[in-house]
Every structure is written in structure tokens, then in C-alpha cells.
Amino acid sequence: MIGSRRIQGEELRTRVLHDEYLYQDDFQGWVEAKEAFRNIAAFSRERGAVVLFAVFANNIRLAPRPEDDVMYPIVAKVTRALKAAGIGHVTVLDEAFRSYAERERELWVSPADSHLSVLAHRLAAESLFSHIMTNGLMGASRSARTMDELSTRRR
């Protein structure tokens, strides 16, 4: 999203080029991010805490296959860095949103604003919850809770 206009064509390419620059191996912000990943992993290991990163990327123009997605090179680089640091991750784009390729606007808060809609938040939450439960990342005392039980506690 740039201002209140939908990113299309050349604007999307410009955004991707900018984002790719931010993830160059020698870019200071990326160097610091990888160091932060290592620090988070060390901190969580010392305390016996489970850390799970949810990787969100492009919800503007999804490709039917992850490797064809415009943001795939960046997402792959981030997930490799997380794995190298020993941090678990879920690529929410792939897990929850991929079936919306060609229908991305259903994931947007409004036709001109690609911020995540209520539907997108629900899909992401369900994907994360499923990953957490499937991989036993919650203690046994909490494993019986369902998504509905967790969502009704907020009301």
C-alpha cells in the first residue's frame, strides 16, 4: 500500500527492489536482524521458552505456488536465517493465505487498503494455532483448548 492507492505493476516492482535491498547480506539492518535472531534464540534456550516467529510477507499479489511469489526470495532468506539461528517459524503466507491467490482482496481490510482484514487475521490465527498444537508447543495442560475457547476468552 502506498498512501491510499493499491500497489500495481511498476509500483510493486519498485517496492520489491527496495525490499530486496533491505535484505542484502551487507545491509546493516539485515546484519542486525540476524544478530537479533541469534540473541532471541539464546535467550529462549537459557530460559526454556519456546519461540515461534510468524513470517508475513506479500498479500498483494499471491502466486499459486510459494516459489513463484514476488516476495519468495526475501521470505526464503528470512526463514533460512531463522532456521540457522534455531528459531521455529511459520510462513503464514503459505500456510494460511496461499489458497487466496487471484483473490487477495478478500484478505484486505478494504479494496484500497491491503492491511489484513478480519478474515486474514482469522486465517493467520488458525494457522498459527494449528502449528502450535500439531508441534506440541503448548504444555499438556493447555493442549485441550480449542480455537473457539481461546477466542471466547477475549470477549
Can you characterise this structure?
Helix content is 50%, strand content 10%. A hairpin with a 2-residue loop joins strand 3 (108-110) and strand 4 (113-116). The chain contains six helices and four strands, in the order H-H-E-H-E-H-E-E-H-H. The protein has helices spanning 9-22, 28-47, 72-85, 92-97, 118-134, 147-152; strands spanning 52-55, 88-91, 108-110, 113-116. It has 155 residues and is mainly alpha-helical. The strands form two sheets. Strands 1-2 form a two-stranded parallel sheet. A two-stranded antiparallel sheet has the order 3-4. Helix 2 packs parallel to helix 3. It has one domain (9-152). The longest helix has 20 residues, at 28-47.
Describe the structure concisely for a colleague.
The chain has 155 residues and is mainly α.
Strand residues, percent: 5-15%
Distance between the termini: 31 Å
Main sheet: strands, sense, barrel: 2 strands, parallel
What value does the Rg take, in angstroms? 17 Å
Number of self-contained structural domains: 1
- Which segments are poorly predicted (pLDDT under 50) over 5 or more consecutive residues? 1-7, 140-155
Number of strands: 4
Helix share, percent: 40-55%
Structural class, judged by helices and strands? mainly alpha
User: How are the strands of the largest sheet arranged?
Assistant: 1-2
The average pLDDT value, as a whole number, equals 80
Order of helices and strands: HHEHEHEEHH
Task: Identify the overall geometry.
Answer: globular
Q: Give me the number of helical elements.
A: 6
